[in-house]
């Protein structure tokens, strides 16, 4: 999730367990600790552009790391904030740990993938119930946190938590409905939908992107569920086959290893970019939910040396035109 949502949820939980006099301190410590796990984005390398993909949402997001993460935050923040607000260290640690604990679970509700069970497993959990940015989740929760601090009423923070849980539950219901619509769409085409997943489009839980495999192709569509259900047929693309798509790629080269790393990160939803013959794309993410156009990809070079890495490419060319199309898909009859 975005840092504001992570911090706000991180603030709401310790506020809910605090006494009135500590509502402000609990919220501030929880807010900072709730954002702290994403400091793992600093683990990156100029030589290896995929290193951050391996470490983002890894050990800092593991469930077993929560007490240690909370302790690290407390060690940093107690002298700066906790002691000055009359807290004992164990209180600072409790508020920081509660805030820290919300982060990974909220991230797992998105589609990116979070290694909750590291180091015992490198499985990436993605429950696909909410977009990484969703104002309808964040703004009411933020209002509850601010009011709880201003009025010194922890009960208001509890109301915010109830709202967050209800909204995430609604996203779960919407996801299952989108999966069912995706199955029906695949059946109408005579397809056997393998690995069908539904993912919320940007900023809402009404319009969903469905992805499934049939034969050697991936199919991407958009469905609007519950409210005026509607299908927006999308594109399809061949699954990545390195022998067919990049016969020049040496099997033991660093670029080939990087493709497998990217395949792991993308949960095997990878294909060759139709517009760039040397790019491997992650088809799970696009600005419009019925498009293949990726938000990120890797680019290989036939002339690269044996130990040269791929190039990581970001493609977030949304613009007002695509935003208008997304809004139309959300609101059209």
From TrEMBL:
<keyword id="KW-0472">Membrane</keyword>
<keyword id="KW-0378">Hydrolase</keyword>
<dbReference type="InterPro" id="IPR007404">
    <property type="entry name" value="YdjM-like"/>
</dbReference>
<feature type="transmembrane region" description="Helical">
    <location>
        <begin position="59"/>
        <end position="81"/>
    </location>
</feature>
<feature type="transmembrane region" description="Helical">
    <location>
        <begin position="125"/>
        <end position="149"/>
    </location>
</feature>
<protein>
    <submittedName>
        <fullName>Metal-dependent hydrolase</fullName>
    </submittedName>
</protein>
<feature type="transmembrane region" description="Helical">
    <location>
        <begin position="156"/>
        <end position="173"/>
    </location>
</feature>
<keyword id="KW-1133">Transmembrane helix</keyword>
<feature type="transmembrane region" description="Helical">
    <location>
        <begin position="93"/>
        <end position="113"/>
    </location>
</feature>
<keyword id="KW-0812">Transmembrane</keyword>
<dbReference type="GO" id="GO:0016787">
    <property type="term" value="F:hydrolase activity"/>
</dbReference>
<dbReference type="Pfam" id="PF04307">
    <property type="entry name" value="YdjM"/>
</dbReference>
<dbReference type="InterPro" id="IPR053170">
    <property type="entry name" value="Transcription_regulator"/>
</dbReference>
